[in-house]
Amino acid sequence: MVREEKDEKAVRAPRSEQTRALILETALRLFQERGYDRTTMRAIAQEAGVSVGNAYYYFSSKEHLVQGFYDRLAAEHTEAVRPVLEGRTELSARLRGVLLAWLDVAEPYRPFATQFFKNAADPESPLSPFSPESVTAREAVIAIHERCLTGSTTRTDPELKPLLPRLLWLAHMGLVLFWVYDRTDGAARSRRLVSRTVPIAARALALSRFRVLRPLVRQVAEVLEEFLPETTARAAGPVKS
User: For residue 21, what is the domain's CATH number?
Assistant: First the structure.
């Protein structure tokens, strides 16, 4: 009896994931065809061939559907950077590869993804990359940048080192914003931006370890600790009602 119950659960789990994926795929298609604001959960459920209640079971709102998209994009990016980071030790090459890999992964979603990122500019929106709802995708990308730094032979200042993954994530968000408004074929200007700025950033990080720059590095570290996401939230403490 116990074995039968386990077998049933094993069958249900993949089917559950298939249903979730179907709802997400349908939502992304409708967002592209009708626009994010004009697409309702009822329309998504109808197109996916599931009940409205079933759609809400997997995604409690349209915002959670977009979070599902963010998570997928982060997962695809994580896979895409594996070959990029293998065998490369120079920080500039690793960071360039990480950012270009994101542009490659994001390109197929470009026609409709820009709608989400424009809405994400609202600091009160759950779609904001700084929101609690975005934590899974945010931490996944921060982890990528941490791997990028850890596997590099470039030495950086020890005071800056713990802050660098989040700093690179913030720079990554700047690239995303530029990409949203980039109308060139294949995001050519975004790729050019990566090629031009990454060597400068890598050089600056390498120089941070020199003693003559230590006072400046400490000032930078203090500013980052105060204003970087997560760090700011911890310093501010709980919001009073």
Answer: 1.10.10.60
Distance CA 76, CA 166 (A): 20
Cα–Cα nearest to 169, from 188, 200, 147: 147
Q: Decide if 202 is inside a domain.
A: yes
For residues 71 and 52, state if they share a domain. Answer: no
Q: Which of 216, 227, 174 is nearest to 197 (CA)?
A: 174
- Buried b vs exposed e over 164-201: b needs ≥16 C-beta within 10 Å? bbbbbbbebbebbeebbebeeeebeebbebbeebbeeb
Please tell me whether residue 239 adopts helix, strand or coil conformation.
coil
Q: Which domain holds residue 117?
A: 63-227
pLDDT of 232 strictly over 70: no
Name the band, by pLDDT with cuts 50, 70 and 90, for residue 2.
Answer: very low
Is the same domain home to 56 and 84?
A: no
